[in-house]
Amino acid sequence: MAVRKLQNFIGGDYRDAAEGRTATLVNPSTGEGFAEAPVSGQADVDAAVQAAVRGFEQWREATPSERSRALLRIADKLEERAEELVRLECENTGKPFQLTLDEEVPPAVDQIRFFAGAARMLQGLSTGEYMAGHTSMIRREPVGVCAQVTPWNYPFMMAVWKWAPAIAAGNAVVLKPSDTTPVTTVWMAELMSEFLPAGVINVICGDRQTGATLVGHKTPAMVSITGSVRAGREVARAAADDLKRVHLELGGKAPVIVFDDADVAAAAEAIAVAGYFNAGQDCTAATRVLAGPRVHDDFLDALVEQAKQTRTGAPDDEDILYGPLNNSAQLEKVQGFLQRAPGHAQIAVGGSQVDRGGFFHEPTVVSGLEQSDEMIQQEVFGPVITVQRFDDEEKALAWANDVEYGLASSVWTRDHGRAMRMAKGLDFGCVWINTHIPLVAEMPHGGFKHSGYGKDLSLYGFEDYTRVKHVMSNIEG
Q1: pLDDT for the residue 123
Q2: Which one of 199, 209, 277, 302 has the largest count of C-beta atoms within 10 Å of its C-beta?
Q3: pLDDT lower than 50: segments of the chain
Q4: Could you write out the three-class secondary structure of 302-313?
Q5: C-alpha to C-alpha distance for 287 and 364, rounded to whole angstroms
Q6: Which of 438, 151, 446, 455 is nearest to 286 (CA)?
Q7: Which ranges in 320-467 belong to alpha helices (H)?
């Protein structure tokens, strides 16, 4: 099979990296290379940023209705070419084709349409005389050029989460996708360029150093990243030198609290899906279960049965829930957690790599872990669900909050009062009740503590990409 060659997309045109460096992209379903992507350096970052500056000068003058119409057209075109998009995404990530087409494209397209509407709905204090003889008004303006970095777990969707609010608000974007999964982001930039002025969307491929060069560039007014806590810290440090606005969506370690009155069968089925979807490579994945004293054993048995029924496979295999892990390093990381499991832990099911080529791993359930254990405290980012037994509501809440992350959580109970008490007490940016993982464009997504700050989706996320200006006029003179 011929190896394809990717290029950067800068100022409306494809370009090779100035230094000519490339890296091989690997299909995680096969472990084999399928494309070469540029590794961009300082000259490429400079070119992309300057293209964004020119694009911003034009795009900032577009009316809200013009920006809205452009995003609606982009959404329509992505929907029209959805199968082509998903084929590329699956080759680059190993995701199941039909599941990705059904579960990732519709919400992403809907999110673009939401921000198309949000472009026309900016709000502020009413214009008025807050001081005698003077009229005050609020202007909401785009912040400027936005530097954005996206992860490899949802390449297409995370790119949408970044560029859609930024462009809807009138900004220009330089986006660097993950070094392992740039294919659909570059493809999408070309599709978008039909409806946007040149330079409004720019995509540069590269490695960690490329991202650091972009984040540290003097020109961008805002930096937004979805990635690891380590990457978030590095971005925040680099942005501090220029006092850039920073938006961080980082890791998670979602507690899933199953009380004794929960429906065991329904909870186990839903949690297995929310834990194993995308091979557990999701910051909100339902991978840390806390089960009540009476329900623990039955729930553990039910979860083991769910794992036995869950299949992994290549994109076009039938009846699979998830594909391979994204890369060999991630597979080694997941295996490392399991190999280092303490003696008091038991692997109830799974635990091994699937021997079929590529980076596949069995659905796994681990019980008997203690609160201080590594697998409870650190993000595994793989198809591994842990189950702990708690004594009472107070202990469940204490253990749930006793991690450095604060992104998402869920509570499973028939007791409304208990659910509301837990929702109040849980130190996480999202609390689901008797469900886990649904997201909607109208509601914010973002965490506390080491999960970062700033919001994706919703009007809260949209406002992050605007700045507020007070204009006061003397009306007496």
Answers
A1: 85
A2: 199
A3: 1
A4: HHHHHHHHCCEC
A5: 10
A6: 438
A7: 328-339, 374-377, 393-401, 416-425, 458-463
The Cα angle at residue 67 between residues 66 and 70, in degrees rounded to 5: 85
DSSP states along 187-218: HHHHHHHTTS-TTSEEE----HHHHHHHHT-S
What is the pLDDT, as a whole number, of residue 2?
60
Active site residue 249: yes
Is 283 considered catalytic here? yes
Count the Cβ atoms, other than its own, within 10 Å of residue 448.
Answer: 13
For residue range 404-419, list pLDDT tens digits in order.
999 999 999 999 999 9
Q: Which position among 283, 379, 430, 463 bears the catalytic label?
A: 283
Give the pLDDT confidence score for residue 124 in this predicted structure. Answer: 83
Distance of CA 111 to the CA centre of its chain: 13
Give, as one character, the DSSP assignment of residue 280. Answer: G
- Counting every residue written for the chain, the total comes to 477
Name the active-site residue from 249, 379, 430, 463. Answer: 249
Give the span between the Cα atoms of 219 and 146, in whole angstroms: 9
Closest-CA residue to 371 (of 407, 339, 398, 406)? 398
